[in-house]
Amino acid sequence: MSTSKPTRTIADLMQVAPVIPVIVIDDVRQAVPLAQALVNGGLRVLEVTLRTDAALESIAAMREVDGAIVGAGTVTGQRDLAAALEAGSEFIVSPGLTEPLAKAAIRERVPFLPGISNAGDIMRGLDMGLDHFKFFPAMAAGGLPALQALAAPFHQCRFCPTGGIGLGNVADWLAFDPVLCVGGSWVCAPKSGNGSPDFVAIAEAARAAAGLRR
Hints:
Elements: H1 10-14, E1 19-23, H2 31-40, E2 45-49, H3 55-62, E3 69-73, H4 78-86, E4 92-93, H5 99-108, E5 112-113, E6 115-116, H6 119-127, E7 132-135, H7 143-151, E8 158-161, H8 170-174, E9 182-184, H9 199-210
Parallel strand pairs: 1-2, 1-9, 2-3, 4-5, 6-7, 7-8
Helix pairs in contact: 2-3, 2-9
């Protein structure tokens, strides 16, 4: 694993675009055209979830796309972290916050976005020097009112809500100042007639998402 200092912080990455696509990919052959479509649409920070056998190879492939900043999501432990870094992940996203994973990510000096859903999670993160968090699962955890309540006593923190966010509610989330960006899968959803990704429509969806106001 690399111990070199990252050129970008997690705060930097969260401000590249208002939406970070959350990508579940089953076929590595689709990785490069998907990344190209998203980047061409203006979404450069790409989260590939470690939910499929194709994820790690897809991360490595997407890294070759000019302009793409590719990271791993659904990182739940140190083994996932090691594999993601070996594949070339430039940032790490976790659905939760555990001390062993957080300490390992800090030790590796990789931009790290852990998931939180309550005050205790945030306080544990602050104790380890973290102040940028993924609010997950955003809608199931109480939606925007819940995050507004959490953010009030933790004014120094910034958030990327993920989970249940789409075109119908994304503007409301982005209008809340502590939210730097949101995570969402809807930009990757368009399919062609045979069920494969419609890369033209994905690029259009990415363009619309990149143009959202924060």
